Amino acid sequence: MVEVQRGLGAGGARSLSPEALEQLRRRAVAAVESGVSQTRVASTFGVSRKAVGTWVRAYRSGGEPTLRPRPRGRRAGERLVLSAAQQGRLVEILAAGPPDEAGLPWLLWTRKAVADLIAREFGVVLAGTTIDKYLLRWELIGRAGAASRRAGCPPGTVLVTWTHPRSPAGTGRLHALVAVSGRGTLHFLARAEPFTGIAEFRHRLRMQLGRDVRMVPHDWPAAHPALLDDRGEPDQEFVLPA
């Protein structure tokens, strides 16, 4: 029978280096395999009975490689600053209406407006690049930004598309009108129901920019061609790409 020696102090397994943790696992598994009860092994080494059971099951199913340490840290989905519930709340606010209706000094949502919303709701300050990661994660912004830079959109021109962001809360697809300039400046409006016109979006975009803009559709959904005829104000131009 393998001799069992007490191996941990008050710090527990988390206080060990990866190499020491591997040795602990090997000693614990060897002790169980030699006939010592898992309860006694857990008590002797100062770890939980559940941990010993997990190590033993892993060893019996996968052999010695399962005893080697894995990199510590959070999984990719756990590295997000905002939880799924917080993201769901944000998307819910975005889809409820423009930022001025949410008490923010903007007519359309922008990276800055979203950052201000996050700071107000959760007390978290995020950079614009991080905001983009969330917008991409929610599938709110698509390829329009990259396309506008490739196309070299001239000043006063934006690419506009209709996207279908998903709610992190799993409540289904939403709708968003997204305008991106050649420099990557982003403006959008989101809602739960399909848009019936673009006049409000155009008006708000002009007011927020303080000038007229030429809007060029990009990846426009074939199911909604009628909105392209919603010219809104006659002094603005909405054109199809050549």
Describe this structure in words.
InterPro entries: Homeodomain-like_sf (IPR009057). This is Helix-turn-helix domain-containing protein. The chain is of the alpha/beta class and 242 residues long. The chain has 2 domains: 16-67; 84-238, no CATH class. It contains 8 helices and 5 strands. A 5-stranded mixed sheet has the order 3-2-1-4-5. A hairpin with a 4-residue loop joins strand 2 (175-181) and strand 3 (186-191). The longest helix has 16 residues, at 18-33. The model is unreliable at 1-7, 73-78, 144-151 and 231-242 (pLDDT under 50).
Provide tags for this entry.
single chain; 242 residues; alpha/beta; five-stranded mixed sheet; 5 strands; 38% helix; elongated; disordered C terminus; Homeodomain-like_sf; Helix-turn-helix domain-containing protein
